[in-house]
Amino acid sequence: MLNDTQCRTAKAKERAYKLSDDKGLYLEVKPNGVKSWRYRFKLEKDGVLKESIFAIGNYVSAPSAESEEDAQARRAGGLFTLAEARAERLKARGLVKQGINPAHQRKFEKIKRGQQSAITFESVATEWLAMKDWEVVTKKRRLDMLQRVVFPKLGALPVRQVTPAHILDVLQAAHKQNGPSVAAEARRTMSGVFELAISTLRADTDPVQPVRKALPPNKTQHKRPLSFEEIVQLFRDLEKHGGRYETRCAFKLMWWTLCRPNEAVEAKWCEFDLDKAEWRIPAERMKKRKEHVIPLPRQAVGMLRAQHGLTGHYEHVFPGRDDREKPMSMASFRQMLKNLGWAGKYSPHATRTTGSTRLNEMGFSSDWIERQLAHTEPNSVRRTYNHADYLKNREKMMQQWADVLDENFSSDN
């Protein structure tokens, strides 16, 4: 058997020669001075034992004070000490005993690593999102979050190489820059992506789990109903807002109708009949995938007529600032509220909770309120009731609601 001194002091000759070690391992010394580890083995093919050579790598003398990380990098570069070459020989012998050519196995592992590198976090996340049975606007919002918060840091990484440290970096940045709600959404989304990756054998573990409690819990009650005093202050602050006029109009439309925030910002002119004071939101834009008719109070009709003079030639009532062919972004509301000092105290989704609570306090029928909010009646018998009668009732209810807002909170009187 060889020792390291023999390997280190072996000199080049005119012809390549071999220094044998044990069990098929030898060191080939080439005329150019390169010393290469080789493993000779026999493998049965077509009933005949045939000899083959497996190239392990080149010889290197054991570096002093080398870290394990450095040693791994060296071996990845094909440089092996005597002891390491023997360990590789042992692995190769194990494959041969199974009838596997170690050279073929190495090629297979290289291809496998290449395929795994091609399976990025972004590709799996896109697949995960496509599998969700969500409405289009919900998918768009989640994709927007991924593109803003997660993909810049993780998108190009092979999904199997994402570590808890990567996840923590994303969560901490999201918490600092976007707030606890966005960080929580990012955490849930990333965990869902890894659940898909694990179930399809593209990842072994969910790196979100070890750091899922690293951030303080979100104690902000974004969806709690605002008191009348808070609504007063919100609308007063709104009138002082120096941002886009269209953002304020979309925000008011949401309050006057109690529609969902995305339904307001993505409203299209073709959905409105201002002469009938009706807004028909098509099924594809609704959470429950059913057309929803919303009565428009005169305040909303007046605002929309004025808005038509500004954006009536576009598809959307409230076009985007940078791309007028697309609707305003939901981020416009968030940015406006942040500028007004309301971030963390109120989110646009709390508008519907507030409206429902205050309308109940004003004595209106819960059936009318639930219908206005496009909530599905859980009782199958009650669902058969002709809700057309509710439209007239809702017209009166929403006009009174808009009048209360107009009288007490708006400076546009």
UniProtKB/TrEMBL annotation:
UniProt xrefs under InterPro entries: CB, DNA_brk_join_enz, Integrase-like_cat_sf, Integrase_catalytic, Integrase_DNA-bd_sf, Integrase_DNA_bind_dom, Integrase_recombinase_N, Phage_int_M
Keyword Calcium (UniProt): no
Keyword flag DNA-binding: yes
UniProt domain Tyr recombinase: residue ranges: 221-398
Domain of life: Bacteria
Boundaries of every Core-binding (CB) domain copy: 119-198
UniProt keyword terms in alphabetical order: DNA integration, DNA recombination, DNA-binding
SUPFAM superfamilies found in the cross-reference section: DNA breaking-rejoining enzymes (SSF56349)
Homology family: Belongs to the 'phage' integrase family.
Protein name per its UniProtKB record: Tyrosine-type recombinase/integrase
